[in-house]
Amino acid sequence: MINIRKAKKDKVEDLQELNNEVIIDNQKYDFDLDLGWAKSNQGNKYFIKLLNDPKICCLIAETNKIKVGYIVAAPKILAYRKSRLIEITNMGVRAKYRSMGIGTMLINECLKWAKLQGFQKAYVNSYLDNQMAIKFYKRSGFSEIDVSLEKNL
Ligand SMILES: CC(C)(COP(=O)(O)OP(=O)(O)OC[C@H]1O[C@@H](n2cnc3c(N)ncnc32)[C@H](O)[C@@H]1OP(=O)(O)O)[C@@H](O)C(=O)NCCC(=O)NCCS
């Protein structure tokens, strides 16, 4: 059975571990990713800060005490837009546990929380080549709104 719960404030290393897997997974879409970041001091501080911020939603999916997935969502302040936006800043399910509905459970729970908090739109950014994630978000009702571009200087 999968249990979705709020991430515990004193278990920052769970989030660092799960985020580390996402970064390693996503390196095929972005060679610029710092593979040591999630477990670094910087990563630790980043996750401690978000765990202590009541405006941020941070959920963990667990089965038999094994942490198998997580989602983080934070307000996205865009003063020039009318709607209150929540951004999914981070999400991942361990490779072995994918395609079992865990990602859907996490996103549904997170968006339920966001709606209760008065958010009107949810936003997420994905690598263009991460078709698995894009398909997943589209299935959850998201549609394409923008494209990010970058260049080497
Ligand atoms: C994107 C991601 C979070 C999705 O998580 P997930 O747990 O695999 O998601 P789900 O299982 O809910 O849905 C995935 C697929 O499984 C299928 N599925 C859902 N419930 C299922 C079930 N009970 N049994 C079998 N298949 C199921 C869905 O139909 C879906 O298929 P589709 O995308 O081909 O339509 C996961 O692939 C991941 O962690 N990717 C790597 C990290 C990453 O890229 N994160 C996003 C950064 S933007």
TrEMBL record:
Keywords: Acyltransferase, Transferase. GO terms for molecular function: acyltransferase activity, transferring groups other than amino-acyl groups. The keyword Acyltransferase applies. Gene3D superfamilies: 3.40.630.30. PROSITE patterns: GNAT. It comes from the Bacteria. The keyword GTP-binding does not apply. Coiled coil: none annotated. Residues 2-153 form the N-acetyltransferase domain. InterPro entries: Acyl_CoA_acyltransferase, GNAT_dom, N-term/lysine_N-AcTrnsfr. PANTHER family: N-ALPHA-ACETYLTRANSFERASE, N-ALPHA-ACETYLTRANSFERASE 50. This is N-acetyltransferase domain-containing protein.
